[in-house]
Amino acid sequence: EDQVTQSPEALRLQEGESSSLNCSYTVSGLRGLFWYRQDPGKGPEFLFTLYSAGEEKEKERLKATLTKKESFLHITAPKPEDSATYLCAVLGETSGSRLTFGEGTQLTVNP
Amino acid sequence: DAGVTQSPTHLIKTRGQQVTLRCSPKSGHDTVSWYQQALGQGPQFIFQYYEEEERQRGNFPDRFSGHQFPNYSSELNVNALLLGDSALYLCASSQGQVLDNQPQHFGDGTRLSIL
């Protein structure tokens, strides 16, 4: 059974203070690892897909990296508008089309 | 380009009642998946519909059922509602049944409260 653990549960940063969110996963044959952003009262918004260890993707202040056991979402010089819950999900070889999500990291960036 | 749309946005029901939630996929998408998200938790997969058939199902009881129409829109039905069914119900669409190269795109969900 696929498993995803995200840490920390919550993170509070000052504007401009860079940090990283962690997503540890257990899956039988990774087909894809997905990062989503979710604002309160909204659905998850797709950010990145990573497929293989060593892969990196960037979008504005966000950079996602992948190893064989975990993924990191690096946030460089965050702004208050980056405040949201960040969700990680995996798709394994035996998953079909079923995404398995972690519980998310709630990020708050103070001005 | 319209994204995934869900209706209604909020719904209040009492225990034992039945509810139907609706979803229109993103333009060009033909596959719809439903997820349940409890407060403070990640989404949990309920089932997926492709070509008007349920293709995959998560660990949810038979009280949860669905349907997909020829225009790719979908409904989620829940019978005999329990207090524990209170959650945000999310619809996600994608192109094709296999997700390897196509991420799922989510709607903003229906907030279901059971009294």
Please describe the structure with a list of short key phrases separated by commas or semicolons.
A: mainly beta, Immunoglobulin-like, six-stranded mixed sheet, five-stranded antiparallel sheet, 0% helix, B: mainly beta, seven-stranded mixed sheet, 11 strands, globular
CATH uppermost class of chain B: Mainly Beta
Which CATH class of chain A? Mainly Beta
| Biggest β-sheet description of chain B | 7 strands, mixed
The H/E string of chain B reads: EEEEEEEEEEE
Class based on secondary structure composition and strand pairing of chain A: mainly beta
Total number of distinct structural domains of chain A: 1
Large-scale geometry of chain B: globular
CATH architecture of chain B: Sandwich
Mean residue pLDDT of chain A: 95
- Overall pLDDT of chain B, averaged? 94
Multimerization state: heterodimer
Taken from the alpha-carbon principal axes, the silhouette of chain A is globular
Helix content of chain A: under 10%
**N/C terminus separation of chain A:** 41 Å
The low-pLDDT segments of chain B are none
Radius of gyration of chain B: 13 Å
CATH superfamily of chain B: Immunoglobulins
The radius of gyration over CA of chain A amounts to 13 Å
The count of β-strands of chain B is 11
Strand content of chain B: over 45%
Distance between the terminal alpha carbons of chain B, to the nearest Å? 37 Å
What does this protein look like?
- The complex is a heterodimer of chains A (111) and B (115).
- Chain A contains no helices and eleven strands.
- Chain A is globular, with a radius of gyration of 13 Å.
- Chain A has one domain (3-110): Immunoglobulins (Immunoglobulin-like).
- Chain A is mainly beta and 111 residues long.
- Chain A has strands at residues 3-7, 10-14, 19-26, 30-38, 45-50, 56-59, 62-66, 70-75, 84-92, 100-101, 105-110.
- In chain A, strands 2, 4, 5, 9, 10 and 11 form a six-stranded mixed beta sheet that branches. In chain A, strands 1-3-8-7-6 form a five-stranded antiparallel beta sheet, with no helix packed on it.
- Helices cover 0% and strands 59% of the residues of chain A.
- Chain B has 115 residues and is mainly beta.
- Chain B has a single domain, classed as Immunoglobulin-like, CATH 2.60.40.
- Chain B has no helices and eleven strands.
- In chain B, the strands form two sheets. In chain B, strands 2, 4, 5, 6, 9, 10 and 11 form a seven-stranded mixed beta sheet that branches. Chain B has a four-stranded antiparallel beta sheet with strand order 1-3-8-7, with no helix packed on it.
- Chain B is globular.
- The mean pLDDT of chain B is 94.
- At the A-B interface, β4, β5, β9 and β10 of A face β4, β5 and β10 of B.
